[in-house]
Amino acid sequence: MSATLELQNQYEFDVYPKRDVVIVRGKGATVWDENGKAYIDCVAGHGVANLGHANEAVIDAIVRQAQILITCSGTFYNDQKALLLEKLIRITPKSLTRAFLCNSGTESIEAAIKFVRFTAKKPNFICAMKSFHGRTMGALSATFNPKYRQDFEPLVPGFNFVPFNNFEKMQQAITAETAAILLEPVQGEGGVNLGEKDYFQKVRKLCDETGIILIIDEVQSGFCRTGKLFAIEHFDVEPDILCLAKSIAGGLPMGAVVCSDKIEAPVGNHGSTFGGNPLACAAASAAIDFMLEQKLAQQAEEKGKYLAERLVQYNFRSVREIRQIGLMIGIEMKEKVKPYIIQLIDEGLLTLPAGSTVLRLLPPLTISYDELDAVLEKLKRVLA
Asked: Is residue 306 helix, strand or coil?
């Protein structure tokens, strides 16, 4: 066993299902372990590395800002924070006019829950079955899977679950105490389940008619992953709150809650010591500029179709269904997926589960077509 494995096993809380690989370096869509073996990375930090590893534009921004100012309290104004806020409002749906900056996806959900309860003066939320919104107590309360919830109950009350893409069940769940509906356009952790345009448009209309706040969680699907800058654009729907994180800052921890004028968040009701610090803001500004300049949404759409079309042609007998939107791909197997993930590591390909039977691919959007062909060959060898 390597020294790194021994140290980490000795001192880290064992909360992650580990693979016996020590990753020490990355560039683009490739990472290397401590022995020098290369892997094509279709994990990408659970969808964080949309721009690839060691993106030079982000590195340059981090180095410059680290030499100027790394941290700044939210009680003061800051140039990098102001620039990023303006950029976020410019690129997100037109309904959104203000933002709160935090450090992660689960924190963005927590902030959204608080903002909604203060604004609506009502306690209840409707979420979807198979949803995943995070692991802190509020976000966990909005997450469906019992295996994440059961050891930490009682959770925050007021969260109800209905089947995804079932508008009739959604309508039936509405009560006088419903403050908000919280949905993912694509359920990543839940199995790469794709939202339906008609469903989301009906939900938006329902919220308009009832005064209910619509929260869209794009922590995983945002920033070009699905072939659009934000997945909600596929449905021609604008939310009241948009929760963002993962790839927003090119790999640095960051999240954001972008809100419409409906949402109230007065002074003193929420905050974050590290949220919106100048270093993360500079990285995020550089990351967003890179996404737009390199047309990463278009790249994701084209590369995702290329990968999915070829996977379907293989007609694997072990595969039940392939679900794809941009470079967010779920391969549903007819059996447990973990043995395939382990075999693919041996082949030099890192992949993710999405539930017990779905193999998930979240490669960097900058992945080359040669690397996509290599991914296909490795999948063909293992899944066949």
From this structure: helix
DSSP for residue 249 = G
Q: CB under 8 Å to 126, separation ≥6 — which residues?
A: 160, 161, 162, 170, 173, 174, 178, 180, 181, 182
∠ CA 18-22-25, rounded to 5°: 130
Q: CA dihedral in degrees (129, 135, 140, 145; nearest 10)?
A: 30
CA pair distance 349, 336, nearest whole angstrom: 18
- The answer to the question of residue 4 being in a domain is no
- Sequential DSSP letters for 163-227: -TT-HHHHHHH--TTEEEEEE-SEETTTT-EEP-HHHHHHHHHHHHHHT-EEEEE-TTTTTTTTS
Residue 227: give its domain's CATH number. 3.40.640.10
Is the pTM above the cut of 0.85? yes
Domain tally, the chain: 1
Residue identified by tokens 């993360």 is: 280
Alpha-carbon distances, residue 7 vs 12, 13, 32, 151 (angstroms) = 8, 12, 19, 28
Residues near 17 by beta carbon (within 8 Å), at least 6 away in sequence: none
Position 298, amino acid:
Q
User: Which of these, 289, 283, 290, lies nearest to 256 by C-alpha position?
Assistant: 283
The rounded average pLDDT for each run of 10 residues, N- to C-terminus, in the chain (384 residues) is 87 86 97 97 97 98 98 96 98 97 98 98 98 97 95 97 98 98 97 98 98 98 98 98 98 98 92 96 98 98 97 94 98 96 98 96 98 98 93
Residue 187 lies in a domain: yes
